[in-house]
Write the structure tokens for this entry.
Amino acid sequence: MSASSVSIQHNPMNQEQNLPVSDTDQIADPGYRARLSLTGLSVGDGFGQRFFYPWIAETASEDNLPEGPWHYTDDTEMAMAIVQVLERCGEIDQDVLARQFADRYVADAARGYGAGAHKLLRQIADGANWHVASRDLFGGQGSFGNGGAMRAGPLGAWFADAVEAAIDNARRSAEVTHAHPEGQAGAIAVSLAAAWAWTWTASGRKESPETMLPWVVERMPKSTVTDRVAAVAEIELDAWAFDVARQFGCGDQVCAEDTVPFCLWMAAAHLTDYCEAMWTTARVGGDVDTTCAIVGSIVALSAGEESIPSAWRRLREPLAW
């Protein structure tokens, strides 16, 4: 049975991790994988968000964690909606997802949503057709921001054993808010990277980390995002992260093409070390909550649940299911 035909019945009010009883169960359970990715995403989101405060960015260290609570942003809010729809439907039903996005937005609109998201989600909440409202954004071209990518890690985790489904569901999940093909390409890239990360560890980490980005590129649609991921794949994984960000961006423009390539390179360079991935990503700067969220959603799957310190989880505010 493929992942796309499985519907796991989790209670969203339970703990964020419904832990299976064995490694075999974990590998087979898409819900476990998606919630593990969500944990990595939400902890990274809250951690990265703290670095927007200059005094924290200047003083934080491994021995001096940013003060809590680590409030999560719209990155986590929308990723939670993704997980809720997957657990309800077993795949992305775009109408259900649009309503879930809008309902969560109405319940807590002060999560750092961008101007375009505010406009779109208000319209959907008021009954607008998401197909029309999404395409009307930014002068009719639709959004090509990094919002579709920031929430796609749990999708790749859920469909880790069904690559075509990971691609299709990532595209559909992004299309609800990001009608522009580049915004959708960003989501596909992150979904594929998350699927690869889980499979890499589940299969014994036999392949070199350098194979991750070329594998993702081979399966992506033609786009500027794809071209830039292909370009960043040429950079050695022991390069200085600041140089990678200087060349490819780190979310300063809040678009998919200046966010996703850097995040995928960062994940590939830190596949077995969640904390180092977060510290390095945060110190580089840029759209820090989103870059940490994307990198965290991928690396949690390759480094494992135990790689996310319990102290970090406690500092991140509880998820409001």
Summary: The CA atoms of residues 15 and 319 lie 9 Å apart. The first helix runs from residue 23 to 28. DSSP finds 18 helices and no strands in the chain. The chain has a mean pLDDT of 92.
